[in-house]
Structures are given as C-alpha cells and as structure tokens.
Amino acid sequence: MNTSEDKKTFYAEAALSLQNEGYGVERHSDEHLLVSLDGKPLCEVTNTTGITYRQENISSPEREAAKDKAYEIVRAVGEYTRQMQSAPKLEVPGLSNQYKLLADFNGTVLAGMESRYGMQFVTWDWDFDRKGLSHGHYYGNNYIGAKQDFATRSGLMDRQRLFTDEQLIEIYRCCEDTLEDTYELTAKQRKCIEGVQDQIKDAIPDVLERIKLHDQQALEQEQQMTQTM
Question: Strands, DSSP E only, in 95-193?
C-alpha cells in the first residue's frame, strides 16, 4: 500500500469482510485489527498481506480452520484493494456509478466500485460495438465470486472443470470414507487421495466444520421426521 489512505481503506475493508463472515473484529489502531471467534482471540491483522496468530489461540481443528479462512479473506482484500488503487475508470456512456475496470477479456469485464457498504463487484458483457454493457452479474463485496465468474464467463477457465463448495465438501467426505474403510489402496493411491483432501482444505479451510454442521442438521431433520410419524 502506497499511502496511509490506501492502508486505511484496506483495514476498513478487511474488518468489514471478516465481520460479514462471523468474526469479531476490534480496531486496535489504524493498522492493527484484533480478530476473535466466539468471543476468544483468534489472530491479528497487522499488514496487508496476511495475519499473525498465537498457537494457543488455534488449539482445535475448528479454530485452525477459522484462522485459515481469515487468512484467505485478508489475502483477497489485499489483492482487490491494490487492484482498485491502480485500476482505470470504466468509461461507459450512461454508467452512473464510478466503477473501475479490473479486468477485460473476450468481451467480458470485471469491475469494482467503492460504496458505503464496502467495495462492490460485478461482471458484464460488452455490447458488440463496446459502447455499452449488459447482463450484469452483481456480487456485492464477494470479490472471489466475481473473479471466478469473470474467469468462466470470459472463457479463461472451463466452467466444467470447476466444482461448487457443496461438491467439494462431498468429495472430501468420500475421500475420508475411502481412507477409513477397508479398501486395499496402494501407497500411491492413498497419497493421491490425501492430496485431494489437502487441496480441498486449501480451497475451503473450514471444510471439516461445515461437514460437522451438515451432519448435525441432517440428524436433527431425521429426529424431527421420526417425532412426527
């Protein structure tokens, strides 16, 4: 970040994004965020590229996953605030809001704008003469979602090669069942399956917590159905 104003924008965005994901955030100073989970300290944001933490504050798999997720949030905020600082204005007749052009490829654009609700992101298609935009996909402050939409919408990435979070969670569950069952696996197969799990953990740091929540909800629904029979 080049100026104190840029850093101020980053920390404000980081605080907002973390709060939107259920974290507690306390502004200790203009360049220091204290992040908590369930009322207990988790980590700190002291720079624009990541977090710091104490080992005793991530003493369970759930809290470690929450720490990893906080890191991904902060990293994404750092990325898009840097992009927004240097991006040119999106000059389109009739476009009232002050959007900035973050990416433009194959007739698709990724744009962002500052608002009182934090930075907002959208993808559009150019009209054939590039004098207007249409078919807006609005993502609010979900930068990662907007960036993924741009990648597939513009053809940079094949949509068929992407999995939703729900699909990845089920794949992780199936991998775990395979490893824990009595299947005869070679060392190479086991290493491959464990590698898939590690990759999913990187993409969804709280995957174990979400599986636990899903199982709990399924059990509660089953109990309710039993009681009504």
Answer: 100-105, 108-113, 120-126, 133-138
- The pLDDT tens digits of the residues spanning 147-187 come to 999 999 999 888 777 788 888 899 999 999 999 888 888 99
DSSP string, 174-197: HHHHHHHSS----HHHHHHHHHHH
Structure tokens at 197: 């799990």
Q: How far apart are CA 156 and CA 107, in angstroms?
A: 12
- Written as six digits, the tokens of 216 are 């709990």
Contact residues for 66 (Cβ-Cβ < 8 A; gap 6+): 23, 37, 42, 58, 205, 206, 209
> Among candidates 72, 74, 82, 80, which has minimal Cα distance to 120?
80
**How would DSSP label each residue in 3-64?**
SHHHHHHHHHHHHHHHHHTT-EEEEEETTEEEEEETTEEEEEE-SSS--B--GGGG-SHHHH
Rounded CA-CA distance 117/72 in Å is 20
Domains of the chain, residue spans: 4-85, 88-161, 165-228
| Residue that is written with structure tokens 């955030």 in the block | 25
| Helix-helix angle 165-180:207-228, to 10 degrees | 90
pLDDT in tens, 14-35: 999 999 999 999 987 767 899 9
Instruction: Return the structure tokens found at 70.
Output: 């906080």
* Amino acid type, 15: A
Q: Which long-range contacts (CB under 8 A, 24 or more apart) does 122-126 make?
A: 122/146, 123/149, 123/150, 123/153, 125/153
